[in-house]
Every structure is written in structure tokens, then in C-alpha cells.
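Objective 1b: paired records.
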Amino acid sequence: MKAKTGLFVLPLLFTGCLNLNLKQILPSVKDYDLNVGAIEAQTCKSTLSVGLLEVLSADLYNTKSIVKRTLGGEITYLKEQKFADAPTNMFKRMLFLQAPKHCISISPAPYANAPSTLQLNVLTLALLDDNTAEVVLDYTLTTGAESQHKRIVQKQPIPKEQDLSQIQALQRVSLKAIDQLLAQIEQITPKKEQQSKDEGLKGPKLNKPIF
């Protein structure tokens, strides 16, 4: 009976020692969000309403692993840091959080009352081997029957002497890209809405009677 008990206990002890050794050998992995810093309050006379269709990304970048890319196209990943969520979800949250600063209200579907809709595509979110962090976004803003397609490219140098400088560079460059996107929407949308209002005030064109 004692022999059987010993045979049963030994594997458990071995498993426990193995797990302990693995924890000691493997470095701890820390999770990071792209959304950092305080959200600024903004007093707006009027707010632009924009419906968010979707946030898309290539599978290569829509991962919790933080991508490192060389000029030759080689892909590796950071070993001790990763994202807390998929980049598409983090950029979507960033839009919701930063939009009020630009007097814009971003609404998820359904958005029946939004005169404009937005679709965002994350083309690049990576650390480059020239010691920079890069974000490339494509977006389509549609108002009525008219659509505008634009691309935003932002880069951020990575200071070598600072701890967590790679993560901080990705956070800063992402925020810059979203701020640039929202600033462009802020400039484009009022012109379109005012043009629609002016056309509505003028009313339909009437053909002059011919005598």
C-alpha cells in the first residue's frame, strides 16, 4: 500500500517542481493598453455626430503580440510585453474617448441620426528597426452620397535610455494618429453639413415657364 501511495505522490511532486522551475525561468509578460493619460473635458457649442461602421485590421497586426518589423519584412515579437486587447478594440475605444475633445460624438451601430459614417482600417502598428514606432491608418468618411478616403501616417522616435520606451512610443504615436483623424473630420464635416443645409433652404430648382 505504501509503495502504491509513493508511486502516486512522486508524479505530483515532480509536476509541482517542474511548474515552479518554469515560473523561475520564463520572464513575466506584462499587458499594456494603447489608451493612456487623462481625458480632456471640452465645452462645445455644437457636436458633430458620426456613426462608426467598423474598425478593421490586417491579421498580422490585429494581435495582442507587439510586432517588430525590419526593413526587409522580417517579423518578430516583443517577449516580455504584449497588448491587453486586440488593436481594433483599443483603437475603437480611443475614438470614443478622444472624440469629445474635438466636439465629435462617435456612435456605434445603430446610428440612425448620424449624418456621417466612419470606417477605420489599421494598416500598420509596429516597432521598426530604425528605432521608431509607426502607425498607418486608412479611413473612409461618408456623408450622404459623398465619401472621402484618407491615409494617416505617424512615426515616433524611441528613446533608448528610458524604460518601457517602446510601449510608450506606440501609445503616443497611436494617440497622435487618432487626434489627426478626428481633427480632419472636424474640418470636413461642418462644410458638408452646411452645404446640405444651404441646399435645403434654397429648395428645389423650378423650371421657368416658357410663353
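Objective 1b, second protein:
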Amino acid sequence: MTTRRTRLKKGLKKLVPVMTVTFTAAPFAVWVQPAHAFFPPFINDSGPPRVLPQPPSPPPFEPPTPPPPPFNPPPQPPDVSPPVCPPPPPCGVPEPATVVSGLIGLAAAAGYGLRRNGEKK
């Protein structure tokens, strides 16, 4: 009985990841709509392609270059004085994503600990 149970546990350990991937990917493959926004329909109403002769090219035209504008030196920057009051202290509240990431990490660590304790018995 013990060997049968051990074989069943080993088989389930191999089967669980396969089933997880299958049940996660199957809905996306079955119910997801195609991405028409990325690939708009190609409409060709002009008939078969035809070659149009090139019109004769006009001679190149080079417009006269205007003289450069007169040089004006840039204005002097204003004097910057130090602020009168000190800046506010940094905010001690973490972002929500940091809190959620921490909770996910704690849950993963707790699950690992529970799994290790279950194996020792």
C-alpha cells in the first residue's frame, strides 16, 4: 500500500504543473479575439498592379541661401538665491506595489515553510 501511495504522489507531482499550464493557456487559445488593431485589413480595389512611366525630372533647383542672422549674445542668467525654507522631509509611506510584492513574497515563504514541514512528517 505504501509503494502504491508513493507512486501516486510522484505521478501527481509530475501531473500538477502540466495541468496548471494547460488550464491557464487553454482559455487564451479558445476565447481570445484576434488582434485586428495590430493588423488592419488590406483592401486592394485598384485591380492588377501596373507600372507607371516616370515623368521627366525637372532640373535641380538650388534656392539662394539667405545671409546668417546677426549675432546677439545671450542674456545673462538671473541670480539664484537659496530657498528661504528647508525642503519637506521624504515621505515614509511605501508605494502600493511594494506592499503587494512584500505580501506575495511572505505568502511564498510561508507556503515553502508549510511544504517543508509536511515533508518531514
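The chain is about 45% helix and 0% strand. The radius of gyration is 36 Å.
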